[in-house]
Sequence to fold (286 residues):
Amino acid sequence: VTRKNIVEIRNLGMGQFGQVILARTVGVHLMGLQQTESHTDPNGGTLVAIKKLKQNAENGLVEAFDKEVKFMSRLKHDNVVRLLGVCTEGESFIMMEYMENGDLNQFLQKQKVMPDTISGLKENEVTPIILLYMGVQIASGMHYLSSRRFVHRDLATRNCLVGRDFVVKISDFGMSRSLYESAYYRVQGTLILPIRWMACETFYGKFSVKSDSWAFGVSMWEIYTLGKVDPYEEMTDEEVIADAIRGPDRKLLPRPDLCPQKVYDIMLRCWAHDPLVRASFGEAYS
Ligand code: ADP
Ligand code: MG
Fold:
């Protein structure tokens, strides 16, 4: 696709790598989107989210980005955000499916939890079953990604997007990985890492499908606390790091009030110190 294929509508948010913009397509047929999911507008275009890459990317980064995009274009799962197109001419951008309820963290913060027995939910109302449903979708998407040997490295509710009817899809995969080596976690030589989502071994550089499991447990915890508090909010960054690298005795997040014991047991299995005994996404999903 090129610039000519999109008409910008409005800003959706500011990402670490540049702006995210809602746009309408012009004269392109998006084969990737199922008709029921697409947001076709009266003019025949489709609503999409455009993620621009900042101009100052070096050559190596652009190559890594291209490689990543090729991989992303092969991903196809109901709980993974679809990449719909890429523009590499001039100002580079990628085109993704538009998720109208934004990121899961912001979405959760707006919600009020109602009892499961309620009939007819109003806007911004969820029930415990819906919270579980959203978590299951993340497990499902991650199960798919892990089966492709894909390691996300930054799974968190802020990196999941919400569509209609509480559909949740994993996002920021690929981007966070290709940029991991450069801009995202390293700012002027200082290491910036999602420390509150990180398993012990990742502090020593060992990212794997199993460290994603750990982050999945934290993401579930975020869902049941409605994104209202940061994990280990009472601890400073330095304390979190010092505690995390202590190993098996590290402090684990408490069971949120809304979280059933059975679900908390899954979280605890995601937080096993030994990556080998830690729950896999297949197990978490089933
Ligand atoms: P980055 O990971 O580069 O920092 P994000 O992907 O988190 O950027 O995007 C920033 C914000 O833009 C998100 O928090 C979300 O609110 C919005 N956004 C991103 N992608 C989409 C999308 N496909 N549909 C709707 N909103 C989106
Ligand atoms: Mg993000």
